[in-house]
Every structure is written in structure tokens, then in C-alpha cells.
């Protein structure tokens, strides 16, 4: 299996994703929030790039079933129902609803998944299911880290490295890695016993803690805390078994 990892999304063109399995990672916090929303019973999550798109989408599907979620600079967007804290996405708020989500980094990558054969939302919170699905799919892999404002983020790279580690060391798949994938794998293996501490000390971990979202950072750092498998189908993220 060929595995290409991209530390930030900007270098990736859609042609490089064609026919492959694409794993989109934004550990802090979009990927974790998507997992939690679907676990809490949301019918689907629709990722969009901008707040205006989100409002237009809710107008199309109806305010009765559509919920607006998202953030800019870590803070809930004005007039939105929810922010980007996974802890906000409870059954009481989202069960049976469609969440329209826009975040600073994580939701933008989904527009690039139109040519991939399979697009998965990846996080530390669902990492074992993600790795197994990648293995079962049997296609070449692209891991796209959302990063932070176009720059490297340690938590997304660690997550990508852990997926590769599971594929290589646990599932025993022979892999050909690009240099960024090799770097991510090395970073993970160097921090294998201190993931939570490394993420908490990272730039975005510190930022979220200053905003009062330390519980989000803790949840997002818990391995397999939200064991669901979100996949993209017709521009909507749903649970894989659906």
C-alpha cells in the first residue's frame, strides 16, 4: 500500500486523491466533534467552508431539522446553535438532526474528497476503526492533516503517524511512505508514551486551554474514546454502517 501524508492541506490537488482512500484529520477539534455528533444521534454532518454557506444550507433543508455548528478563532460563530466543542453535541441537541458544520480548518478539506474512492473522518477518538477500515478498503492511502491556519499542527501529525503505525505494526500491511508520512510515523513513535501531554503542550492545545476548552483537548486526546466511523457520502458525513 502506498501512503502519502500531507502535513498541511495546501499542496494537495484532487488528481492525487483519485481512486484512493482519503483520511481527513483535525484532532482539535472538527474531527472529534463530527465523531461525537454522529455518536449522539445526528443523522448527518454537512461540512462547509464558510458561515454563509452554512446558513444557506440550513435554509434549504429547513430550520426544523438543520443545526448550525461552527467556530472562528475557537469561538462559536454569532447566531449559530453550537460551536466546535464536541462536548456541546449531546443527544438532546442533535439526535435526529442534520448538523451543518463550518470550522477554521477541519471542514475545508472535504471539498477535495470528490475524486477519492472513500473519504473517512479520522481522529484519535476513533483511530482503531479508521485504521481497520483503511486496511479493509485495500486502496492506496492519502492522509490529509488540517493543520492550523495553513501551518503544521502536532496533534494532526501524531494522529496520522498513529494510523500508519497501526497499519504497519498491528495489521501488518507493507507500506511505501512519502517523506511526510515517514516523519509522522517517527513523531508518533517518539511520543508514544506521552501523546496527551504532547498535544496539551502543542500550540493549538495551549490556545484552546486559554479559551477554557481544556476538556475538549482531553477528550480529543483519548484513544478510541468515540468509536464511530464517519464517512463522506454525497457531500454528507454519515456513520459507515448506514
Could you list some keywords that capture this structure?
alpha/beta; putative 2-phosphosulfolactate phosphatase; 5-stranded parallel sheet; 9 helices; 4-stranded mixed sheet; 242 residues; globular
Topology of this protein?
Blueprint: E1 2-6, E2 21-25, H1 30-39, E3 44-47, H2 51-61, E4 66-72, E5 75-76, H3 91-94, E6 98-102, E7 118-122, H4 127-137, E8 141-145, H5 154-170, E9 176-177, H6 179-190, H7 195-201, H8 203-210, H9 214-220, E10 230-233, E11 236-239
Parallel strand pairs: 1-8, 1-9, 2-7, 2-8, 3-6, 4-6
Antiparallel strand pairs: 4-5, 10-11
Helix pairs in contact: 4-5, 5-6, 8-9
- The tally of domains stands at 1
* SS class: alpha/beta
What is the CATH architecture assignment?
Alpha-Beta Complex
Strand segment count: 11
Largest sheet: 5 strands, parallel
Number of helices: 9
Q: Give me the strand/helix succession.
A: EEHEHEEHEEHEHEHHHHEE
CA-based gyration radius: 16 Å
Largest beta sheet: strand ordering: 7-2-8-1-9
Can you offer a commentary on this structure?
This protein is an alpha/beta fold. The protein has one domain (2-236): putative 2-phosphosulfolactate phosphatase. Helices cover 36% and strands 20% of the residues. It has 9 helices and 11 strands. The chain has helices spanning 30-39, 51-61, 91-94, 127-137, 154-170, 179-190, 195-201, 203-210, 214-220; strands at 2-6, 21-25, 44-47, 66-72, 75-76, 98-102, 118-122, 141-145, 176-177, 230-233, 236-239. The strands form 3 sheets. It has a 5-stranded parallel β-sheet. A hairpin with a 2-residue loop joins strand 4 (66-72) and strand 5. The protein starts with a strand and ends with a strand. The mean pLDDT is 96.
